[in-house]
Amino acid sequence: MPNMSMTKNPMPEQDPNVRNHNFKEVAMGYTPEMAMDEAKRCLGCKNMPCVKGCPVNIRIPEFIAKVAEGDFAGAYEVITATNALPSISGRVCPQETQCECHCVRGIKGEPVAIGRLERFVADWYRENVNAMPKKPESNGIKVAVVGSGPASLTCASDLAKKGYEVSIFEAFHTAGGVLVYGIPEFRLPKAIVQNEVDKLAALGADVETNVVVGRTYTIDDMFEDGYKAVFVGSGAGLPMFMGIPGEALAGVYSANEYLTRINLMKAYREGYDTPIKDSKKVAVVGGGNVAMDAARCAKRMGAEVYVVYRRDEEAMPARREEIHHAKEEGIQFLFLNNPVQILDDGHGKVRAMECVKMELGEPDASGRRRPQEVPGSNFELEVDTVIMSLGTSPNPLIRSTTPGLEANQRGCLIADEETMATTREGVYAGGDAVTGAATVILAMGAGKKAAAAMDQYLQEKYGK
Amino acid sequence: MVKIVRKKVLNPSVTLLEVEAPMIAKKAQAGQFIILRLDEEGERIPLTIGDFDREKGTITIMFQKVGLTTELLGDLNEGDYIHDFVGPLGVPTRNELGEVKRVMVIGGGVGCAIAYPQAKHLHAEGVQVDVIVGFRSKDIVILEDEFKQACDNFYLMTDDGTYGEKGFVTVKLQQLLEAGEKYDAVIAIGPVPMMKFVSATTKPYNLRTLVSLNPIMIDGTGMCGCCRVTVGGKMKFACVDGPDFDGHQVDYDELMNRNSVYREREAKEKERHACRMEQLAKEMIH
C-alpha cells in the first residue's frame, strides 16, 4: 500500500539552541519505521527519472523497494553496486538539484526523501552488519591515485573491486580530503569517513598519508615505479582572498584555514594542541556552503556570527537547507553588503570590517544581477575575526611538476568529459582538480567515470 | 611514522634529531622544510631540513625548544617515533639563488641550524662562501666547527662579547661591505628582526639578499594561506612560494605581527607541559 502523504517524513534534528553549542551531528537520521514508511512514498516508476539525476547512477527505486520491505541489507547491496560512499553522499549531496528534483512525487508535494533513505541504509549497515569487503583477486596491475577526497576514494574503490593494485597518496596525515578538513563533524561525522577508508583498505587499496605529490613523489616517479595509470583527484584547495587592505591582520582567516584548524586538527576539542583564536564577533565573507560551514563552526566556538554577502539571499550558492540551519542557529545574514577594508585595533589585530551596501543592477554573464556599490553607504561592522570564504582554485603543484599535463586558464586540469583522460597518456583526473570547486557528488561521479575509462585503457594495453 | 636514529643536544635549548625518512631524503634540497606532528592530539609544525643523507635515507632537523610541541619533541630519544613527518616542502634555495660565484651566509641563533646546510651545499658546489654567525652569548654557540669546514671566511659574533667579536651580525657585515668585499648574494636566516636589519644593511649596496621566512603554518602545501606574507606589495604563501624571499621586498613588521597571534595560547600550552612534567616527576618519586 503506497504512502500518499504529500510531504517527506521529517528527519529528527537536534534543537537549534542546543546544537549551536556542540559539534554533534545536527540531523539524527530516520528510525527503521520512519524509513520504511517514507520508502512507501516511492511509486517505483518504470522510467526511473530520479536515476538520471544521480551522478553515480544509483538504482534508486530498486533500493527503495527493499527498504519498504525492511530488507535493509539488500538495499545496501543495491546502492553499493554503483556508489562506494553512500553514508557520505546521503548526507552531503544537494539532492534537491540531483535525484530528488526529478522525482514524480515532487510534482505535487515533496519528492521522496531519497538522500535520507540512502543515509539510513548506509548507517543501518554500518551499525548492524559492518562487514568489511573481501579483497578481490589481484590482476597484478598497479595504479596510483593522487589525493584521497571523494573523487579519489570513488575511483580507488571501483578499481580495487576490479582487482587492480591501488595505492592512494595523500598529503595530509588523514585520508578523506574535504570530507575530513572541510565539512564539519556536525554535518559529517569523521568516524563515518574513516569507516569508508577502512572499507577501501579492506578491498586492498594501500593508503599512504604524508606524501605530497609533486614534492615527495612525482607522477614521473610513479610510472618509473611500475604504476601503469594514475588518477589525479587533488581537488581545488587554493584559497582566494579579496585583495583589500587589512587582510594580513591577525584575526583574518581563509575558510580553509579556519575549517582545517577545527575539523582536521580538532582545535575545538580540549587536549588538542592546535590553537584557534578566541573570537567574540565573527564576520564570514561569502555565500557558499563553505561559508555556511565556517559560520556555523564559529557559532559553536561561542561567537556572535555575521555572514556578509554581496548579493541577495536568492543568489546564494549555498544549499537552502544549510542557510535554513544557519538561521535557526542564530547566525545573522547581511545581504547586499561588501567588505571594503579590514580595520586595525592599533595592535595589528582586527577591530572592525568596513562594508559598503550594494544594490542589484543589470544581469551579468552568469545571468545574475550584478551587484554594485551604493555610494556613501559605508559603515563599520565591529568584529574581531574575519573569515574569507570566496572560493578556491586548484593547487598548481602537481601540474607544475608533471610534464605533459595541461591546465586551462583557471588552473584546472584539462580532461576529456567522458573518459576523464588528461593530456598525458595514462593520467586521468577528476573532481575539483578539473572543474574547480564543485560538489562532493560530482567529484564522485568523475572518479567513477575515470575508473571505468582507466580499466578499459589498462585492459587494452596490459590485459591478458 | 618515522624513527629517530640520532639525537644530539647542541646547546641548552637547541636539539638535533636525525630521522629515517628515505622518500624525503631522496628529494630534499637545502632551504626546504618538513612538517611534523607528534601524536593524534598534536599540532603540525614546520621545521627546516637541516641536513639530509640520500644514501642512509635520513633527514636531520634542528630546533629550539620554544613551545609545547618543540618541548615534547626535545623529550624524545633515539629509537622513538614521530607520528607524521611530511616533505620536502617549499622551493629549494638553489632555485631562487640562480648563478652565483661568491655568497655571504648569515645565521642568527637557532637560524644557524638552517644557515649551516646552505653554506655546506654551496661550498661543496665550489661557490666561495663567507659566513657570519651571531649568538646572544658564548653558552649558546652551535655548529662552530661544522661552519668552519663549510666556508672560506668565518666570523663569529656575540651580543655580549663573551666569545668571538662583540656585536650583532650586521656590525660585521657592515665592516666587510665598507672594506669593499663583493658578494653576488647574501643569505640571511634567523630571527625576523635580524633578517630585517641585514636587509637594511645590504639595501644601500643594492646587494641581493635572500631571507628564509618562518610564518605560522598548518598544512604547508598551499591550501590555507595561514603563512601568507607580503612581498613587494603582493600576497605570497611562504609554504609554496617560499620560504625564501627577496629580503628588500618583505614586510617584516606584518610578519612579526602575524607570528604573535597565538602567543597567549602558546604560553598556556607551555604551562601545560610544565604541569605534565611535574606530574611525571611526582609519579616517579612515589
TrEMBL record, chain A:
Transmembrane segments: none annotated. Its EC number is 1.4.1.13. PROSITE patterns: 4FE4S_FER_2. It comes from the Bacteria. Pfam families: Fer4_20 (PF14691), Pyr_redox_2 (PF07992). The keyword Oxidoreductase applies. GO terms for molecular function: glutamate synthase (NADPH) activity; iron-sulfur cluster binding. InterPro entries: 4Fe4S_Fe-S-bd, DPD_II, FAD/NAD-bd_sf, FAD/NAD-binding_dom, Helical_ferredxn, SudA-like. Keywords: Oxidoreductase. Residues 32-63 form the 4Fe-4S ferredoxin-type domain. NCBIfam families: gltA. This is NADPH-dependent glutamate synthase. It comes from Candidatus Flavonifractor intestinipullorum. The gene is gltA.
Automatic annotation (TrEMBL), chain B:
The keyword Iron applies. Residues 1-95 form the FAD-binding FR-type domain. Binds 1 [2Fe-2S] cluster per subunit. PROSITE patterns: FAD_FR (PS51384). Pfam families: DHODB_Fe-S_bind. It comes from Candidatus Flavonifractor intestinipullorum. The lineage of its organism: Bacteria, Bacillati, Bacillota, Clostridia, Eubacteriales. SUPFAM superfamilies: Ferredoxin reductase-like, C-terminal NADP-linked domain (SSF52343), Riboflavin synthase domain-like (SSF63380). GO terms for molecular function: 2 iron, 2 sulfur cluster binding; flavin adenine dinucleotide binding; metal ion binding; oxidoreductase activity. This is Sulfide/dihydroorotate dehydrogenase-like FAD/NAD-binding protein. Its cofactor is [2Fe-2S] cluster. It comes from the Bacteria. InterPro entries: Cyt_c3_hydrogenase_gsu, Dihydroorotate_DH_Fe-S-bd, FAD-bd_FR_type, FNR_nucleotide-bd, PyrK_electron_transfer, Riboflavin_synthase-like_b-brl. Keywords: 2Fe-2S, Iron, Iron-sulfur, Metal-binding. [2Fe-2S] cluster binds at residues 224, 227, 239. GO terms for biological process: pyrimidine nucleotide biosynthetic process. The keyword Chaperone does not apply. CDD domains: DHOD_e_trans_like1.
